[in-house]
Amino acid sequence: MGRVKTRFIKTIAKKLYEKHKDMFTDDYEKNKELIKQMLQIESKKLRNWIAGYITRLKSRELSGS
Questions:
Q1: CA pseudo-torsion sign 37, 42, 30, 10
Q2: Is 53 inside a domain boundary?
Q3: Does 5 reside within a domain?
Q4: Which pLDDT tens digits describe the chain residue by residue (65 residues)?
Q5: Contacts of 58 (CB under 8 A, 6+ apart)
Q6: Considering its fold, how many domains does the chain have in total?
Q7: Distances (CA, A) of 55 to 31, 38
Q8: How many CA atoms within 13 Å lie on the side-chain side of 16?
Q9: Is residue 30 included in any domain, yes or no?
Q10: Residue 3 carries which DSSP code?
Q11: pTM of whole model > 0.70?
Q12: Is residue 3 part of a domain?
């Protein structure tokens, strides 16, 4: 069972995902680099949480769940 993401992380990730849905993939590393370019986040940990949640959203979309 994974860690629970805060509402802040989910809100940012969902907004980015809806706005740039076609740019994101189910590859975490690519998503991490995209977020690094899109947002000016100093914290690696925060950026990685957002990238991980977006990766999860994209994976769910692709699998049809």
A1: negative
A2: yes
A3: no
A4: 567 778 999 999 999 999 999 999 999 999 999 999 999 988 999 999 999 999 999 999 988 86
A5: 17, 24, 25, 26, 31
A6: 1
A7: 7, 16
A8: 26
A9: yes
A10: P
A11: yes
A12: no
Query: 47 and 35 in contact (C-beta within 8 Å)?
Result: yes
Phi, psi (degrees; rounded to nearest 5) at 5 = -90, 145
What does the block give as tokens for 61? 């979309």
Q: For the purposes of burial, counting CB atoms within 10 Å of the CB of 49, is it exposed (0-12), middle (13-18) or buried (19 or more)?
A: buried
Nearest to 31 by CA among 51, 50, 47: 51
Domain of 53 in residue numbering reads as 11-63
Query: The domain that contains 30 carries what CATH number?
Result: 1.10.60.20
DSSP 4: P
pLDDT of residue 14: 95
Cα–Cα distance, 63 to 25 (Å, whole number): 12
- HSE-CB at 41 with a 13 A cutoff on CA atoms is 19
